[in-house]
Structure formats: structure tokens, C-alpha cells
């Protein structure tokens, strides 16, 4: 889409503005994250599960101590997460998942996952943890849960030269659509009950 | 201890230097943290458990995007952790713990724990997670594991007007001393096996 100044001149973002745009684009998962946080708060308040989003890992370089004030971080950098974003406990079991949103209507690109996260999912499964991903198609607001073991299979297919995404049809076949509600908004533990009970 | 300049004048730390000192003092758990990280790496490499220290929660206020460089955080603040520092999976079970070091030879002050962390421990236990704390007496290098349910009892004793610390004798009685080794340095899962098997 072309954006114009009031005088009709076409707006061209500078490098910095492009980056800012990319940054905001990177936050497109905000709504999914908010819905999951609300769901986790519901689980917590009702003593159903204790599941939190992990803090973003930050490399701190410089900290100042201004007078009469607490520590201020003056230089720091985002680090690539080495694990998935969410984990916690449900009925004594370890729960571990990653949440991704896509604007695509037909598939979820596998580049949404980092290699480290795939390795982490492999490790969690090896220790009998409950591993999955939650995927939202933002245009249709459909949300799917896909077990980690299937994500690993689709990842291997890509590494063997196959397609670089998971088709929505495949999510329908191998995953579980999560019905959306009010409280909690995304009741993913209901799906976990269906799979494991 | 008095510190003197080469000219004999007594060194008095400025406010900022005092705070820096406090900050470093706050890092006195470094060695325990390093030992636990090494132990967790051992568990991970040997497919025994997947247990990580959570990133420190940071409130980001200002981010810059210098040209041809990645995002730089220019203003951020440390947030009080609302959970414990370590969690993960062992034999499918959820593992959750906090690690504290003390210079005291006789007790661990309960002020080492935040109210939020106590609440989190209560929630984890209610969901049948395995909850504990690891306490090191840095002068003797003795390390104890105390189950979360006992920590809650000592916390309640304090809230009811009792002592504000856990005596080392009580750790001996209610907790488990963890033998120190080479790989892993602190084999706390061995104690968990003893408790739960």
C-alpha cells in the first residue's frame, strides 16, 4: 500500500522506519499472546494449571545507578530464544509450547520456528514432557494445536528437501482445532485432555 | 573493613559506588548459579532432564534502531520475578525450584524469597508439580534441598510471628543434603528420586 503525505508526495520509509515497521510486524502475534496470557491467568486463578510465558532473553551490556533511583539498563540486546516461549505444570505433567500466528490463509511457514526451538522440542519429548505448538491463522482466527512430534516430522520433511511450510490441510489432519471461548479464550488444555486421557 | 588510598586517606564510597557494591553482593549466588547451570547442561546432554534458568524479567522502555545494526535497548528496568528461577521436565514430571546462597553459617533468612515466589510455589504444589529450593551455605559449601511444602511451613511460621529464617538444623532435619560431585556438580535429581520413588 502506498502512503502519501498531505501534499500528495509518496512517503518512503527510511531504513530506521522500515526496521520499526518490521519490529511491529514481528509483534503481529500480540493478539494470540494476549489471548494465551488471558487463558493462562484463567487456569492459574482456577488452580487448573500454572503456565507462564518466559521473559524475553536479553543480553545486558551496561547498567547505570542514578542517584536515589534503582538500576537503569542503558545498553542491552535481544537474544535469540533457545527454548519455547511457554511452559508450566498441568496435573503434575510438564507442559511446553510455542505460539505462532500467520497471515497466510493456507499454511504456516516453518521459518517461524528457530532451529534451537526445534532442538528444545526434541529434548522435551525425549524426557516425556507434553510438547506442542499453537498456531493461529489471523485472517480467519482459526487456532490449531499440533503436537511437537508432528512438528518434528514436518521439520524433517523440509530438511530432506520437502516443502518449507505446514499446509493448513495438514494441520486439520494431524492437529486439533481449538474451539474459542470467553473464559478461557483458548482452552488448549481441553485438547491436551483429549490427546492424553 | 576500612579501605585506604595510597596516601593513607580513608576511602568512602559514593552513593553510586555503594549501590554497585550492593549489586555485586546481590550476585553472590553466582557460583551456585554456575554449578546449577553446569548440572543442568549435564542433565540435558545425557537426556536425563530439560531444566533451564528463566531469563531475568526486564521492563523495556526505549529501543533504538541504529543504521545497519540490530535493535539496541537504551532504557530498561529489572522487574521483580513473579516465579521461581528454574523449571523444566524430568521423567515427564514438572520440576520447579529456586536457588539461594547465604553467607550465614547457621540459617537462611526468609527475606531471600519474594512473596510472589512463595505464592508461585503454592500454586505449583496445588497442580502436583515437584517444587523445592536449593540452598547453599557459601562458607562451608554445603548444599541442601528443601521441598516447597516445608518452605511454605517455615514461611507461615514467620507470618505467625515466628523466626524470620530457617535454621540450618531445620534444613538438616526437614531437607536433604546434596552430595557435591564433578559431573554433575550438584546432582539434585538424585535427591528427587529418593523423595518420589
TrEMBL record, chains A, B:
Organism, scientific name: Pallidibacillus pasinlerensis
Keywords: Cytoplasm, DNA damage, DNA recombination, DNA repair, Endonuclease, Hydrolase, Magnesium, Metal-binding, Nuclease
Top-level EC class as recorded in UniProt: hydrolase
HAMAP family: RecU (MF_00130)
Cofactor binding note: Binds 1 Mg(2+) ion per subunit.
Family listed: Belongs to the RecU family.
CDD domains for this protein: RecU-like
EC number: 3.1.21.10
Protein's name in the database: Holliday junction resolvase RecU
Site (Transition state stabilizer): 100
Amino acid at each position: 500500500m502506498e502512503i502519501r503525505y498531505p501534499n500528495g508526495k509518496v512517503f518512503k520509509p527510511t531504513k530506521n522506519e522500515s526496521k520499526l515497521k518490521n519490529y511491529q510486524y514481528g509483534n503481529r502475534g500480540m493478539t494470540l499472546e494476549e489471548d494465551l496470557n488471558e487463558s493462562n491467568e484463567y487456569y492459574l486463578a482456577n488452580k487448573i494449571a500454572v503456565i507462564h510465558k518466559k521473559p524475553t532473553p536479553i543480553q545486558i551490556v551496561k547498567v547505570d545507578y542514578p542517584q536515589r533511583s534503582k538500576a537503569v539498563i542503558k545498553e542491552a540486546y535481544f537474544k535469540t530464544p533457545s527454548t519455547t516461549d511457554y511452559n508450566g505444570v498441568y496435573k503434575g505433567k510438564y507442559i511446553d509450547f510455542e505460539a505462532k500466528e500467520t497471515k497466510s490463509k493456507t499454511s504456516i511457514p516453518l521459518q517461524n520456528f528457530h532451529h534451537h526451538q526445534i532442538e528444545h522440542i526434541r529434548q522435551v519429548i525425549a524426557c516425556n514432557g507434553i510438547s506442542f505448538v499453537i498456531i493461529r491463522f489471523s485472517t480467519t482466527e482459526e487456532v490449531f494445536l499440533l503436537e511437537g512430534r508432528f512438528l518434528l516430522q514436518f521439520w524433517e520433511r523440509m530438511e530432506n528437501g520437502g516443502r518449507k511450510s505446514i499446509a493448513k490441510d495438514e494441520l486439520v489432519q494431524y492437529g486439533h482445532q481449538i474451539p474459542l471461548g470467553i473464559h478461557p479464550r483458548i482452552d488448549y488444555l481441553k485438547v491436551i485432555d483429549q490427546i492424553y486421557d
